[in-house]
Each structure stands twice: as structure tokens, then as C-alpha cells.
């Protein structure tokens, strides 16, 4: 593999999760069959709609981002694990920036990452491999059933690892007041969870 389908690459602030607020370089890969109704990047779903870009080109852009102050690289999508990421990670690793992955976990893990943000979905739960190696669990909340699913994923993560469990985050669905209230009230009463917000949307950045 010498290329991957790429929706876009860009420099911005990481808006979500534990690393929120840090300078990052994003590589958004095309293709997703998870098909969440609330997804804000539905344009990334059809893989054929986006160009194949060489790994050498992606490496050069990442090197430029590192020189410009990016603290880490985020491989996102779409669903990036629909693709084998071994070669991409090998090429980017030599540049010295930590590699972060954002995934729903429906596919087996490929590539080597310094941080894995797993965002499981109720309609397509993740494979056990991702539950055993993720660094943060980030669940989107729209209704009460999402909180039950979040706890089941947290329990599955604890059962799958022999070391410290993942950080637990609840993220209100975009433009969903009910999800916002549920997530806030749950975090207030369950100190092992923390609130994740899409701060990049507030800031008006990509």
C-alpha cells in the first residue's frame, strides 16, 4: 500500500477528549460503514468520493506540521480502521510526533499508536481488541440508553485489561439538549466519568 483515500488534512486544536486544547495535525481518511445518524462528517463516508494520496505526501505534510508546532498527529475519519494503517504509522513514526487514533473500534487494530480514543456505538459495538488497548473511552450521549451502554463499555474495558483502565468520557450529542443534561448530571454523580465537549465548534475552528 502506497496510498490511502484522504478527505482532508489540516492543522488545528484538538477539540475533544483528554487532549482537548492541544495543537495537532489531522489526517482524515475516507470511508465509513458505521453510519451514525448524528455524524458531522457524513461527507467522509463514501470512500470513492475522495482522492487517493501517497503516504510520502502525507509524511511530508506531517513533517511540515511538526515544524509548525503540532504536538501530535490525529488519524481520524470516517472510520480509519477500515484501512490497514501499518505502513502509514511506520512512515509517520520516524518524524517523532506521537500518533493518535480516533475510532469506533468496529475493525481490528492496525498500526502502532501512542494514544487510542475509542468511541463505541450502540448499533455497532467495538471488537474486544480495541476495548483492551484504548486509552480513552468517549461515548456520545443522546438518551438514557447511551448511559447504560457507556457503563457496559467501561465494564468491558476493565474486564479486558490487566492494567489501568481507560479514561472515561461522556460527550453530549451536538445540538442535543437532552443529551447535554443527561451527560452533565451523570458526571456530577459518577466521579469516574468526565465531560468531553466539542470545543472546536465553540471556537469556530476546523
Summarize the structure.
The chain is of the alpha/beta class and 206 residues long.
Account of the protein in words:
This protein has one domain: Aldolase class I (TIM Barrel, Alpha-Beta Barrel), CATH 3.20.20.70. Helix content is 30%, strand content 24%. The radius of gyration is 17 Å and the shape is globular. Strand 4 (72-76), helix 2 (86-93) and strand 5 form a beta-alpha-beta unit. By secondary structure, it is of the alpha/beta class. It starts with a strand and ends with a helix. It is built from six helices and nine strands, in the order E-E-E-H-E-H-E-E-H-E-H-E-H-E-H. A nine-stranded mixed sheet has the order 3-1-2-4-5-6-7-8-9. The longest helix has 17 residues, at 144-160.
Q: How large is the radius of gyration?
A: 17 Å
**Would you tell me the overall average pLDDT?**
93
CATH class type: Alpha Beta
- Can you say what the CATH homologous superfamily is? Aldolase class I
Task: Name the overall outline.
Answer: globular
Q: Span from first to last CA?
A: 29 Å
Amino acid at each position: 500500500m502506497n496510498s490511502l483515500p484522504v478527505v482532508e488534512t489540516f492543522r488545528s486544536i484538538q477539540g475533544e477528549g483528554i487532549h482537548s486544547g492541544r495543537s495537532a495535525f489531522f489526517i482524515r481518511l475516507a470511508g465509513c460503514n458505521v453510519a451514525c445518524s448524528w455524524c458531522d462528517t457524513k461527507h467522509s463516508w463514501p470512500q470513492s468520493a475522495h482522492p487517493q494520496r501517497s503516504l510520502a505526501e502525507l509524511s511530508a505534510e506531517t513533517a511540515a506540521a511538526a515544524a509548525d508546532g503540532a504536538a501530535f498527529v490525529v488519524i481520524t475519519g470516517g472510520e480509519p480502521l477500515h484501512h490497514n494503517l501499518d505502513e502509514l504509522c511506520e512512515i509517520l513514526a520516524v518524524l517523532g510526533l506521537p500518533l493518535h487514533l480516533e475510532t469506533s473500534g468496529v475493525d481490528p487494530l492496525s498500526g502502532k499508536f501512542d494514544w487510542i480514543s475509542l468511541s463505541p456505538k450502540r448499533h455497532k459495538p467495538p471488537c474486544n481488541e480495541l476495548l483492551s488497548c484504548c486509552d480513552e473511552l468517549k461515548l456520545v450521549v443522546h438518551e438514557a440508553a447511551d448511559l447504560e451502554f457507556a457503563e457496559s463499555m467501561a465494564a468491558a474495558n476493565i474486564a479486558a485489561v490487566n492494567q489501568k483502565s481507560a479514561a472515561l468520557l461522556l460527550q453530549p450529542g451536538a445540538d442535543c439538549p437532552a443529551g447535554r443534561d443527561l451527560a452533565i448530571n451523570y458526571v456530577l454523580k459518577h466521579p469516574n466519568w468526565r465531560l468531553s465537549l466539542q470545543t472546536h465548534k465553540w471556537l469556530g475552528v476546523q
